[in-house]
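Practice problem: Mandelate racemase/muconate lactonizing enzyme family protein
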Amino acid sequence: MLNRRNFFKNSLVGAAYFTSPVSTDTDELPHWPQPNLKTLFPEIIKIESVELLKTQGELMLVVRANGQLGITQCNDRMQHLTSLLKGLVLPHFVGKDARDLPQCVDNAYRLNSNYKYAGMPLWNCIGSVEIAVWDLLGKLLQKPVYQLLGKQVRSEYPVYISDFNREGDPEKIANQLLEKLTVTEAKGVKIKVGGRMVNTPENAAQTRKYIPLLRKILGNEIIIYADANGSYTPHEGIETGKMLEDNGVAIFEEPCNFEDEEGMKIVTKALSKIVLAGGEQDSSLYRFQRLAQDKVYDLLQPDMYYNGGILRALQVAEIAKKYGAVGIAPHTPKADPLIAPFWQVAALIPNLYGLQEFVYNPTEKKPTWHSDIRLTKGKMTIPNRAGLGIDYDPSIWQSAERIV
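Answer key — structure tokens:
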């Protein structure tokens, strides 16, 4: 079994049109080299409007400038955050030059005491706008966003299939996963352990029964990741982690409450054959620095939206590199347009670690209102299309309801 501490480090490659880093928090933190957008776009790109629209049952954030739309689908959190988006975030983007995007992001955090609201709610709003503006800039230049941000290091990546079951017949769940692996040709799965922020006796019994059975049904060649969603005390996390190690599980995600850094450090120190991962809930670059520097986690998992967008995800990759984490595996990839900003980061960072998430539901009807998102032999090809890589049916905007 591979010991998690025996990994090599990668170096990052710069691009000729990059400038020195522009800070979004502090110059003391490592930064991804920033593109000189005013070299790429000699003329001003005034953001005319930013709207939150509802169409096809989804919230979509739409930026307009120079006759072009920049679009991102919003995650499920946005429906509860509209007042923050409208009152605190949009004034720092509407009417501004899109070429000043890094500064707009910084202003939306720093000015007017917005930082007093700092955390996932604020950064989710800022990140959604930032991601949509990148889509706009890529479309204006007719290039994928990743080509604006650096040198492409991969054109595809292998995936695991996510499963969210915490209850039910373990054998049935395992066999359903095996069927999904057979259809998709994916090489791994991620399953849930514990009870999500709680570990009842029933949760513990389910996990003890499920893990060895899953390994038996899937076989030894399939990679297994396990996500606890903060279910365990440090003692329970160590106990469960050793059982996972005994069954060849490769990654153990968020054993303890995400706020319990000391507890997580105890678990990470006690387990040497499994990669400890976390960071999905975090939105402070200082905290990511501490998580890596203090070895709270081996693997950092910033959410593409919760953490504030593409630039900040790239910065977490640099933090992971500097402080010796095995890499990052950004959170958010799905089988819908929310996957698009992840594609841009995956194309760029050498320290993308392991298999990446894909949600596969064979009974779900494929949407026709956006371009298809599919796997080929267990791998996702990163699109070479302009912007974020998602094409939308123009007719969906005709019946869209304006929320903000």
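Discussion: The chain has twelve helices and 15 strands. Students who identified this feature from the tokens alone can consider the problem solved.
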